[in-house]
Specification:
Blueprint: H1 28-33, E1 37-40, H2 43-51, E2 56-59, H3 68-78, E3 83-85, H4 90-96, H5 110-121
Parallel strand pairs: 1-2, 2-3
């Protein structure tokens, strides 16, 4: 877990190893080693985790105004790719999670954007 200035938020859990650190410019190696990732619902983090094929619980900061995290997490959750939680319901989402039912995120297809751009700008 990248915990920043909040080391007191991490408590030991019987039967589970929780790795945490203050900050890292890249968390790719941590994601690759993880069995499960619990992260904020930022687009970069969510897509990085999904591209690695790891199960993800997106925790939405529900106190932000104009919150893009909510939109992204809800859309990814509707597609069956992630589980969505808030800090208040994270424990219940975790307890009730059926990670085996999550669907793999499809790989990027650059032709989709090219075709869209061509139809809008080059017609």
């Amino acid at each position: 877990a990248q915990i920043g200035r909040y080391p007191d938020l991490i408590s030991p859990v019987t039967g589970m190893t929780i790795r945490h650190f203050d900050y890292s410019p890249s968390i790719q190696s941590e994601i690759e080693c993880a069995d499960l990732v619990i992260a904020h619902a930022g687009a970069g983090t969510a897509l990085e985790v999904l591209r690695k094929g790891k199960p993800l619980i997106c925790v939405i900061n529900d106190e932000l105004m104009n919150n893009h995290q909510t939109e992204l997490a809800e859309e990814l959750s509707r597609g069956g790719h992630v589980l969505s939680a808030t800090p208040k319901n994270l424990c219940s989402v975790f307890r009730e999670a059926e990670f085996g039912k999550l669907k793999p995120f499809p790989p990027a297809d650059p032709d989709v954007f090219r075709d869209f751009l061509g139809s809008v700008a080059c017609s």
